[in-house]
Fold this sequence. Notes:
The structure is a homodimer of 739-residue chains. By secondary structure, chain A is an alpha+beta fold. Chain A is 31% helix and 26% strand. Chain A has an eight-stranded antiparallel β-sheet with strand order 7-8-9-10-19-16-15-12, with no helix packed on it. In chain A, strands 6-11-18-17-14-13 form a six-stranded antiparallel β-sheet, with no helix packed on it. Chain A has a five-stranded antiparallel β-sheet with strand order 1-2-3-4-5, with no helix packed on it. In chain A, helix 5 packs parallel to helix 8 (173-188). The interface between A and B is large, with 57 and 56 residues.
Amino acid sequence: MITKPLLLTDAEIELLHQEVGRPSLMGQTIEAHKNEVDAFMILPLDVPEHGEAGGYEHNRHKQNYINMNLAARLFLITKEQKYASFVTELLSLYADKYLTFGFHVQKNTNPTGRLFHQILNEHCWLMYSSLAYSCVASSMTAEQRQHIISRLFEPMLDMFTVKYGHDFDRIHNHGIWAVAAVGICGLVIGKREYLEMSIYGQNRNETGGFLAQISKLFAPSGYYMEGPYYHRYAIRPLCVFAEVIHRHMPEVDIYNYKDKVIGNTVEALLSTAYPNGAFPALNDASRTMGITDMGVKVALSMYAKHYASPNTLSLGSHILSMAKIQGAVWMHPCGLALSKSYEAVSSEQEIGLPFWPSTELSEGPNGDRGAQGFIRMRDNHGDVTQLVMNYGQHGMDHGHFDTLGITYFNRGHEVLREYGFCRWVNVEPKFGGRYLDENKSYARQTIAHNCVTINERCQNDFNIKRADAVHGLPHFFKVEDEKMAGMSAFANDHYDGFEMQRSAFLLQLEELESPLLLDLYRLEPGENSQGQHQYDYSHQYAGQIIRTNFDYNSHQEVSPLGNDFGYQHLWNIASGQAKKSALVSWLQDNSYYTWLGTSSNANTDSNSSCGDIIFTRTGANDPSFNTRSEPAFILRSHGQSTLFASVLETHGYFNEEFEQSVNARGLVKDIEVIGHNQVASIVQISTEKSSVIVMISNQPDANENTEHNVTFNEKTYRWTGFYALEIIRSQATKTLQEK
Amino acid sequence: MITKPLLLTDAEIELLHQEVGRPSLMGQTIEAHKNEVDAFMILPLDVPEHGEAGGYEHNRHKQNYINMNLAARLFLITKEQKYASFVTELLSLYADKYLTFGFHVQKNTNPTGRLFHQILNEHCWLMYSSLAYSCVASSMTAEQRQHIISRLFEPMLDMFTVKYGHDFDRIHNHGIWAVAAVGICGLVIGKREYLEMSIYGQNRNETGGFLAQISKLFAPSGYYMEGPYYHRYAIRPLCVFAEVIHRHMPEVDIYNYKDKVIGNTVEALLSTAYPNGAFPALNDASRTMGITDMGVKVALSMYAKHYASPNTLSLGSHILSMAKIQGAVWMHPCGLALSKSYEAVSSEQEIGLPFWPSTELSEGPNGDRGAQGFIRMRDNHGDVTQLVMNYGQHGMDHGHFDTLGITYFNRGHEVLREYGFCRWVNVEPKFGGRYLDENKSYARQTIAHNCVTINERCQNDFNIKRADAVHGLPHFFKVEDEKMAGMSAFANDHYDGFEMQRSAFLLQLEELESPLLLDLYRLEPGENSQGQHQYDYSHQYAGQIIRTNFDYNSHQEVSPLGNDFGYQHLWNIASGQAKKSALVSWLQDNSYYTWLGTSSNANTDSNSSCGDIIFTRTGANDPSFNTRSEPAFILRSHGQSTLFASVLETHGYFNEEFEQSVNARGLVKDIEVIGHNQVASIVQISTEKSSVIVMISNQPDANENTEHNVTFNEKTYRWTGFYALEIIRSQATKTLQEK
């Protein structure tokens, strides 16, 4: 039986001890954990019987394991006996009571535990409590140890591997918690067979266990198909267990396993985050989950220790910038390595916003099922703009139907926004904190996203099985140029009889204070889908409408915009017919945004109108106030083959408190579709100082060397590669850039 | 001619110089001002011609005077010549151009200047620029000085005192800017006659000038009838000019003038602020104006120097707590005094939230036209709850029709909220930043407030003249008891034929984590108003509805709630009939709130219903998206003489990012009206642990010794004084507290 700390050597403990009271990230972390645990230890010990998800009992068990895990390490690091006593007493109390609790009544598909309504939470409990035990066991009596092992740990191991043994080898993100808990607990009580079973699976045949999990759960890019919200939840046991294996089964060489899959997937997760540390809410996700999550703290520290080169931990490092946002490290030697690097660099220069390189994360086991694109650009003031586009897979049961959907972030805010899931996690009066009906009827629908909805239906008709079978088709992802970066993809299987292509760019024009978002969304009906179609090009924004360039009617009475596919939840607040292009400007916190959009239908419409703008707000058909009231606007255009084109300009500054406002009107004046066909799309943007022609290839088989040659209105456009940009300044100097 | 700094002696400059680079508030202030001015000085000098309010030109002139004023002092304090050169060059440029600019075209009732569209802004410009000049004049050549005086300062003085001389003596809050600018500039150029005119008025007969202004603008309590938003704008020239008079005309003894009216009115302004430093938006006001405003920084520093006792600057001082929120001081010896006190105290103990004593600020020239009540209570965790009730005067042209309206603040947020004005200050595309139509049609109406609206009409029928003629009648204001504090007032002239009384309390019950808000609103129709009336008891909240104790219909189509008096702007989102009492619970950021309300009509209604709950949202009849979309709920009850009673409980904690939720349901279970008549109102509150009977006097002539004796349902209630509280614990121990 091991009664030594599983994750710390004596020498490491001593190094951590030296950080106590220091102003380093590690010193601050220790101090914060002390305050947290001290406050908790004032409360009487409590091991309550069954309660509801999100209720007191659930929360208490969770707090118990979190605090035991911290207290046990604080005992070693601060050398204060009170922390060991707390852990011993609480574990003993659990051992007294555990077997007297029956199993919870099963309410959904998850097996139930004795403490929690689903064993997932019981896995978490065991992993943390086992680690805690390993830190304090040496201070216990033999009787205490035996009591905890026989009345608590062994019954739990038995439950997970025998009673629920059929589930143990399932390849699933929750499965990582199961194998980590069982492997760690087995090691702690001296039964290495559990560790081996956890690593290699029950049948040692690569169909289960940790190595199979990490081999199969992630794409070669490291991306996890359910998205960052679920990814970050699996990353915690993944990193902790990897570190255990690294220390106790070095022959696995876990950190180099499968081309460094562990470092790879951590990097993929981190690289999705917005510059403020929040994760884009891809698929079912909260809008506020971010890198300050406990698991991501562990992951960043582990990554810094085992994968980062001295170069990536130097000045301007996005790893250190993320540590700054976290304001803490993992209370472990890995965290100490990160803390030391941070200390060295920050003494030389202030650490700014994370500026991760733009990255395209492929999807699917072989990386050939589309991708998620993340483009970032930094402006002259150090602000980082991020554009995210989904042209990968559907996220299974948590998937949203928003292939080709984008989100857009700058100046500390998501600007083109993701609604996230419809769920109030752990809020017991809101359906026990579980997913609400409106998650399906609204949040996952195409119209809830920054996307185009065809004929008021959802992509793949909201059929999950069908959606899981298809994926986006990457066209190009080009980010080498500091002044222009873009990505383009097709989605041809998401609406019967329609091909779609979206191309989105960040463009740093000389006269603009921030990068400009340029977006082209092309819809091509197939032979069986001829005739007029309704295309809804929707934009989820936040803030206050400041101005438009068209008249609209604010409706005297408002009705839902439609009957199904999410439209039933949108109030049709106001609408009006746009001219050749539509301008919608709004204020979000301290910044102004001006959107200028058009459609190719403006070129053929008898009124030269690009369509109608409809202003909506969520909240219709919401009998229990389950949705948030949020605004959006839609450019609705009727046509056959159609190209939407828009720019979004970020400009000016407003401060209500200090009553300051500058540059409330943007500099971009117009956008026009010159033409589009199977070969290319040509649009023109006019600002106060220049005219910009953008030429984009629509040919799926194009490459860097493909020559394009299209003629619209008797003018011919020629370029080589995926796209080209021609900037004509008012002084009539021309620049042609080809990509 | 004076070429010495007007507000600084050589010795004081030296003391300020010693703060450069120090971590004190003054050191931080100097550093921040340096960064601000250095950034501005990189731009080319610009003295633009006419522009629109809120436009570039307007902002540039404003930035010019702000930066000159700072740069001039930075020259003295840092001894860096570049700051003096900047001021001299910019002032010289103004002198070159000023007389070449014509006057702006007049657009509203304000006279126009040569730089700005209204002379108010030109007054600001002159006050700051004159002070700046005084700091750098000694470094100028005689020619430079003469140029600035003859081509800039003298023409301005002439404009203010001759061209617009008829306006100079008007007693008005803007008038303080005029006299301060003229007095200071006169002194700077050696023409004391302007100083004297500014202090004593043009005719030296107490109908104009600074002394008349400060004697007549404020109530004896120091309150300014338009509210804190307009008050803080006048406080800046008031304090600066007072300090000038103090130094250059000591015979006025300005800081002791009229029973220390200056200290008194600064204290009144500060004492209105919420614990986070924001001012309650009484009357026309933004919701974000607060003590970080430049003028309030000057005022707090001036107050600390000339009025605060060592005792009020010791531990727990609300003055120091406010300085902490400001994070800066006035860059002046007054600010240095505050900075020194702050440094001394904060080295001993962390400075917490401001906890101003509860205060009742009387209104009217003699303090007999009602009052504004501010009650504060601090809970065990140090959080400060604040209750504000308006039972004073109407605020003239900026007045809202909300006598007996309340607002409620805790845990860093306004919970029962004020909408504030309907205006986007300085946002040029929003009607030039001016007041919008919806300010009258919605924001100032009774229904936009936490108030009772009778028969769907506004108080005083939205007649300003009529509203200015009446005021609230204070009943009691009792704040001695740490566990219970309350105020009560009548408003009998605000609706024809109705008398109204509101009594609001903060109650710290043992079992509750935060003070409970208890609110009683009584409506008594007169002889000519018999029959049924519609009473709308409205609550402006923020956040997400979590649960109710009654069924409601979310409407399939939504219409405005009414046609006039603000109702036309409210969407009727959902409604339902409540039982004897109605429960509405919501989540605002990290806290849960549960409101339980009832009306006496529940005792007579055939369904035992206290009325209907209507959930609304602003935005109807808003053709230009001028309003913010904000929710409210109304308890609508039909009856004759009616008492509304409610409690608002603050409980629990929610953190979406970390997915934590505790105590999502409150402990208060019910509220009931036992009875009410001309003598008293009796209500009962039930919590999980106790039953609380509250007895309140409704007799306008009651006092501390009045004996009350009322019988309802054959039970008699007896007490002495304004109110009494009886708490029956589940263990059946009784406590009777009389007030």
